[in-house]
Amino acid sequence: MQSQVFLRHTPGCGTGVNRQVRHVGRASAFGNTFTRLILQSSQCGCSVSTLEASNKARRVSGRRAAARNAARAASASQKLTVAVTGATGLVGTRLVQRLAREGHNVRVLTRDVGNAKDKLRSRNTQFYGPRSWSEAVSGASGVINLAGEPISTRWTNTVKREIKRSRIETTRALVAAINACPKNRRPKVLVSTSAVGFYGTSETQTFSEASAAGNDYLAEVCREWEAQASKADVDRVVILRTGIVLAKEGGAVGKMLPVFKLFAGGPLGTGQQWCSWIHRDDLVSLYMEALTNSAFRGSYNATAPNPVRMAELCSVLGSRLGRPSWLPVPSFAISALLGAGASVVLEGQKVLPKKTLENGFEFQYSKLDPAISNILAGS
Ligand SMILES: NC(=O)c1ccc[n+]([C@@H]2O[C@H](COP(=O)([O-])OP(=O)(O)OC[C@H]3O[C@@H](n4cnc5c(N)ncnc54)[C@H](OP(=O)(O)O)[C@@H]3O)[C@@H](O)[C@H]2O)c1
């Protein structure tokens, strides 16, 4: 295994070496070099660290962040009853597992009860078809709205209509069911999904929650989707503007993996487009936080604090998959796979989770490399 050893001399430490010394090689081959560095640092009092050590520290701090988020959510939410639409999808399945694991009751609102029962075999879970959504939300503590036709697909006119209709009409029906509940049976909070597509696309701008909406097709879908959600007459409506979700089994990156395996790890398109990503586990934690933390109200970006240009995402993916990273993946290959839905990865936006961080949310995966390593390892 490759290992790196750093010796950092503090300016003015007396050694006269005011620079960082870096050695790269096999851990087992460091031998004398490592001993010399340790001795040198013990003389001047400066620090020696190995990359393994700092990676370990990062892993520990990631686990601590997850534990803190979970503990905060658990203490704030003793035994909730949570109604969830889109629970059978990439994000929803994980969210339902998490809710059930923490002892909450889950009400799955689905178009197809049989399919949902096959996909979600969790304890504490009840299933409701479209005709019983009113019953499903009545008496629930909170509602999470994830439903929508997938967008990382070929966009025929019919699909485009369905992408919009599925989000706006599902949210309208859900909000109508919530608002029809008598006050004493009405959920207190609605956490509803939106996407970073809200801001439109740009290679140069940086967007935070305060930025204005864009005016392309996806921005229009997101604006109307959010507008429907905000009509819920509840204590809190929280909107999560979600970035590209990193998961092995699906989403844009999950779908790109076979292409990377076939071709190479080079940039997609120009590679200069921004990719605002989030690890699926962090997204699930953020839904839990938004549900249980009353400081969350209004719109939040559900993206890791370190968005990257697509070239970097591809290079990390390529290197983790052992593919060369100099050969570009042709846009036509991605367009053939995703159709117009490829715009999600061929055009992008740099989005920062400013309000999300200000509210104290701690990301377990704030850097891309460990997030990709984790999803490729099968999480
Ligand atoms: N994955 C990402 O990278 C990403 C990025 C930004 C935003 N988002 C948004 O986050 C939400 C969850 O994402 P996801 O990746 O988990 O989505 P997903 O895997 O595509 O699942 C969405 C769920 O929505 C329901 N659904 C699908 N087509 C529908 C239709 N035509 N009408 C009504 N309901 C429909 C389905 O549930 P039932 O069959 O049980 O009804 C499905 O399981 C989605 O709204 C998505 O747009 C995702």
From TrEMBL:
Entries under Pfam families matching the protein: DUF1731, Epimerase
InterPro entries documented for this protein: DUF1731, Epimerase_deHydtase, NAD(P)-bd_dom_sf, SDR39U1
Domain DUF1731: 329-375
SUPFAM superfamilies, sorted: NAD(P)-binding Rossmann-fold domains
Residues covered by the NAD-dependent epimerase/dehydratase domain: 82-294
Protein name: Uncharacterized protein
